[in-house]
Each structure stands twice: as C-alpha cells, then as structure tokens.
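Case study 2.
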Amino acid sequence: MNFYKEYFLGLGEMARVTREKIIIVIGNRILKQIVIENGKITVELMEHYGFTLEKHFQRTLPSKRLPKLRREQKHGFGGAIDKEDILIFSER
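Prediction:
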C-alpha cells in the first residue's frame, strides 16, 4: 500500500511539471500468486490528475533473468514480469 501512496504522489509531480504528454512504462507484479495490474492502476491515478490515456501498447520482454515466481519469506510468492505496458497520456 505504501508503494501506491508514493507512486500516486510521484505521478502528481509528473502531472504538475509536464505539459501535453506523459509516457510511462510499467509492468505488472505478482504477489501471493495474484497479478497486480499496474497499467490499469496507473490509468486510474492519472485520470485523477486530469490526464487521459491516449495510447496503450504492450510489449513482451524477450528474456528475463529473474524466475517467474520466487519465494518471498514475508509476502508469499512474488514474481517477475515478462510484459510491460507503455502508456501515453495527454492533458485534458
């Protein structure tokens, strides 16, 4: 939860100092075998700051050195990403 609080504030700073367009590249995470869709979350947060999703691309990463799932002692199973979202926002 702390990550998303800080992320929200960081996006707010981007929105404050940027004119016209913002491009964000972000991937999903896996936590306790649940996929957290960071692209969708980012779209909702950016809408709060007055930006609209103009284009959305998804790219498959050709190779990853991290395993898809790994054991995390405190949080259960986590994982690495093999795709990323490229989000292009424009000011309303």
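The helical segments are 2-17, 38-48.
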